Amino acid sequence: MRSSEKKQVEESKKAASNGAVVSDINGVPSVPDSAREDISNATSESEDEDWHNSSSDNDGDSSSISDNTDESSDEDDEDTKAINEAMLDYMGALEERRQREALGSEEEEPRSARTEVESDSSEDEVPSRNTIGNVPLHWYKDEQHIGYDLAGKKIKKKEKQDQIDSFLAHTDGSKSWRKIYDEYNDEEVELTKEEVDMIRRIRAGRIPHAEVNAYEVPYVDWFDWDGKGHPLSNAPEPKRRFIPSKWEAKKVVKLVRAIRNGWIKLDKPKEKPKFYLLWGDDLKATEKTANGLTYIPPPKPKLPGHEESYNPPVEYIPTQEEINSYALMYEEDRPKFIPQGFQSLRQVPAYSEFIKERFERCLDLYLCPRSRKKRIDIDPESLIPKLPKPKDLQPFPNICYLEYHGHTGPVVSIAVDPSGMWLASGSMDQTVRLWEVQTARCCRVWSLDGPVRHIAWNPRKDLGILAISLQSKVLLLDLELGTSDPDEVSKLLALNPSVMDNDGDGALVTWMKHENLKALEVKHSQEVLSITWHHKGDYFTSVAPDANTRAVLVHQLSKQQTQNPFRKLQGRVVTAMFHPSRPFLFVATKMHVRVYNLVKQQLSKKLMTGLHEITSMAIHSKGDNLIVGSKEGKICWFDMDLSTQPYKTIKNHHEDIQAVAFHTAYPLFASCADDSTVHVFHGMVYNDLLQNPLIVPLKILHGHSKTGGRGILDCCFHSNQPWLFSAGADSVIKLFCD
């Protein structure tokens, strides 16, 4: 390119950047924008022709170029074409930049700016800007980004144009038809000229690349027949091809011998397809007649028995009064045959019901359809659940180790302290006794004003406080044990002066100091039958079934306050217990167990026992399972995560169940009843909610005698050991060990 022409190109570029009218090197003004695309296409076609001409010229001999007399004119034409091409590319890029600035777009450089033509191979593709892979894009519809780039940074979504802007951009843009939206990278890709040409060739059914010639490989004829008058081998045929083969004859003889001996079967019988009725009966069980119907033999008539003897013993012959009474009975209860006595067989008259019975049998054979009942042969052992052996579930209490004697009346309630060292018992002889567990020695005896109904030990180890219910009072007794803190116990059992001012006629209970004992007294309006402590040792409940709306009261020892959580109770309350770890209160009435949420102050669940009258209740240490005992001798196990119906119902006692108990450390529970027996069970509760609890009966403990129609009145487990205490109406407490 000459220096003058280069200067002219630079001046035209500056003029184009300043917005002036641009002309080519010959002084011709530029073409308008609407016709720029047609000019570029025409120019590209001329460029292709020039390229082919130049390539063909280059393939010629170099000497032909040197011999050309118009060499200078050809160089001028080539420089002019290069300048025109550069000008057109520059003007196109300038116009695209103006359109982007007008639309406010921040798109990246189009793919047309790429210098090299991409191939159709996946290895040559430009790597994607988005690295999320081939995942559905609707996962990112609510996000502000569409994925992540190679550096791990979020790719923000671009602002979408409205319909008016997109329409104007499509109308004004000369190359808008070449743009394709890439939704994975959130960008518009402009197709190059080569890619558009490739798409057109594919749609026309041609090879994508124009430079590929599918027929450039010439045909090669591997055989040349010119001048060849004979085949490859012209040897004469040998004699062996015209005589029978000796070895084939031996093979035929061998096959004939095998066929005659039956070793080879030529015609195998075709197997007929076996069809059967999909919903039909077993063909082996019933035979079919010629008409295709299943034949079932008729039932055989009943043969005469001993009651139809012609000369029965006299005691089997009914009197006339008995015969008359048969007429007053229902027909189905009336005897079918009335025996009679005859001296000899020839005196027996004809059977009066013979014709009637034969007629009814014929009607049955004619009208009644027959059916064959299939009896299912089931092994009775398979119906019994497979449970582990009791010896594999040790330890559990099975022998009587100690007996505690001292009470003169029935022992109605027993309780073990949290440390497991002491045992407290309450009896109808109006005394409460403190026993040493390992020696059965009675350490203390407290004489009270009335028979004891129930006792409960405070669950805190540092507080030696025992709650005792007798008549309409609840005593909070200081046992003065060496393990308890005397200052804290004295502070808790000291009467609060503010409580004395609040006591009046409308108070729920009356808190007062006991006159003779070191105890705090809570006086109720009716007789208290049950007491239970909260696991933290500050709250306890008292149940007085005859107190109507005040049947269940919740007391707080530290503040000496009483609350009535229920305005109305449905049914007679038997007992009430706190949940071991959650703010729930279980209230057992005669037929149902209601679970109340103390935080929300509403009913959470209602357990349907299906029993006539509940007598006792115990809650598992995890709190999700509980058992109830009834006067029918049944135990109902409830899994509250499973259902409000009983998971298992066990009928193990013959008389009323008096108490049920769970062990706090071992998978054991027990029940005692008036039949003077204690049943010990293995009750394993799993942490996996998909696995049901395992219940296995282990041992039936005997040893108490029945007194006044009462047997064992209470039972409880040791705090740490697999031991069981039982208290009976015979005034004896027994310890069963493993």
TrEMBL record:
Q: Enumerate the UniProt keywords alphabetically.
A: Nucleus, Repeat, Ribosome biogenesis, rRNA processing, WD repeat
Q: Where is the composition biased (Low complexity)?
A: 53-67
Q: Which GO terms describe its biological process?
A: maturation of 5.8S rRNA from tricistronic rRNA transcript (SSU-rRNA, 5.8S rRNA, LSU-rRNA); maturation of LSU-rRNA from tricistronic rRNA transcript (SSU-rRNA, 5.8S rRNA, LSU-rRNA)
Task: List residue spans for each WD repeat.
Answer: 404-445
Compositional bias (Acidic residues) at which positions? 68-79
Q: Which residues form the BOP1 N-terminal domain?
A: 140-397
Q: Where is this region: Disordered?
A: 1-133
Q: Which InterPro entries match?
A: BOP1/Erb1, BOP1_N_dom, WD40/YVTN_repeat-like_dom_sf, WD40_repeat_CS, WD40_repeat_dom_sf, WD40_rpt
Cell location: Nucleus, Nucleolus; Nucleus, Nucleoplasm
Q: Which GO terms describe its molecular function?
A: ribonucleoprotein complex binding
Gene Ontology cellular component list:
nucleoplasm; PeBoW complex; preribosome, large subunit precursor
Which spans does this entry mark as compositional bias, Basic and acidic residues?
1-14, 94-103
Q: What does the protein in this record do?
A: Required for maturation of ribosomal RNAs and formation of the large ribosomal subunit.
Tell me the protein family, please: Belongs to the WD repeat BOP1/ERB1 family.
**Name assigned to this protein:** Ribosome biogenesis protein BOP1 homolog
